[in-house]
Amino acid sequence: MALSYDSLQAVIQSKYLPKLYDNIFREDRYLTRRLVEKAKEFTGREIVVPLEYAKSANVEFTRKMDTFVLGTVDPFTAGVSSPRMLTGHLTIPYEEELMMNSAQAIDNILTAKIKNLQSSIEYTVGTNLYSRTANGDSGANAHKWYNLSDVCSSSSTFEGIAVADMASWAANVIDADGSSYSDDPSVEDNLLDPNSDVYIIKLIQQALALGKHRGGDKVIVCPQYIYNLIESILDPRKQGSKMSEKAGKYGFELIHINGVPVMPDDDMVAQQTGDTDGYIYVLNLDYLYMYFNKNAKFKAGKWLEPTNQNSKTMKVHTYGNMCVSNRSAQTVITDIRSPKSYINSNVY
């Protein structure tokens, strides 16, 4: 039977792309799993995020018959972000089309192609998420989704708001290699020594304290090397149970510090320039969101046939961005030892 590309498009959109969305953000990574779980939708030309920038002036103790004065200031403003397009594609050479002559053959080929598309998008999204290059509203990377360096910054304008205009718009940055520390964070012994200023647990506890005023749903993200250092310190033989119940309900056995789950992500390491500029993020997920346009949320396009190839190609579009509603709830620790050779960088 001849392959119907209209029917094939419908099958891909209804059967395969929903699974792609469910798995796309590293189903084995706690952070992206949580971001997808709480993702929001938008339909306009811009993403508008309500920002709470002050305490309400209308909370006070009153006496009988006191006059309660209504406030004239609403402690909210709006951050405005531009959505950006993420595009992948599926290609079927004519030779494969001739092979797709049964439902089983179609399923076998499409399953392999969707799996490859998933891993390719995972790689693109993961490397962008931890990129050290800003993806702001202008410049060469303005077409990319915001990354954690955009979110966890103590300077610059983000979502149309300058740090100088709103105190809560500056994230917390701890430079472990700064002059305030007497020990070298590039030496593993110092990271493991409780008496050291750069003892890895002390640094993370400091980061947690900086964002404590906001409470919320926190997660610590670090390279695998750092995760293993923490794990060796929090040995269950010394600390009792080390697993996080919150992460456990999502199927992850993560260690935790002060009740906050710690997750490793090798995509971070690929963005380092050397072995001593590792990052640790302490993120508050109550103020961090993924936004997707509901009309382009892994949407299958039309099949196109290039004039110079014996194939047909379909584009898969995703339109959205990562946004933050409070940067002061986010913290990053910089310049920590994290050898790049600790992971296999040759795996795509």
Summarize the model shown.
With 348 residues, this protein is an alpha+beta fold.
Characterization of the model:
- There is one protein chain.
- The chain has 348 residues and is α+β, with helices and mostly antiparallel strands.
- It has a single domain (5-54, 75-342), classed as phage-related protein like fold.
- The protein contains ten helices and 14 strands.
- It has helices at 5-23, 30-37, 94-99, 103-129, 148-151, 188-192, 200-210, 224-233, 236-239, 245-248; strands at 40-42, 47-52, 76-81, 84-93, 157-158, 161-162, 172-175, 218-222, 256-257, 260-264, 278-284, 288-304, 311-324, 331-336.
- It has a six-stranded mixed beta sheet with strand order 7-14-11-8-10-9. It has a four-stranded mixed beta sheet with strand order 1-12-13-4.
- Helix 1 crosses helix 4.
- The longest helix is centred in the middle third of the chain and has 27 residues, at 103-129.
Describe the secondary-structure layout.
Layout: H1 5-23, H2 30-37, E1 40-42, E2 47-52, E3 76-81, E4 84-93, H3 94-99, H4 103-129, H5 148-151, E5 157-158, E6 161-162, E7 172-175, H6 188-192, H7 200-210, E8 218-222, H8 224-233, H9 236-239, H10 245-248, E9 256-257, E10 260-264, E11 278-284, E12 288-304, E13 311-324, E14 331-336
Parallel strand pairs: 1-12, 7-14, 8-10
Antiparallel strand pairs: 2-3, 4-13, 5-6, 8-11, 9-10, 11-14, 12-13
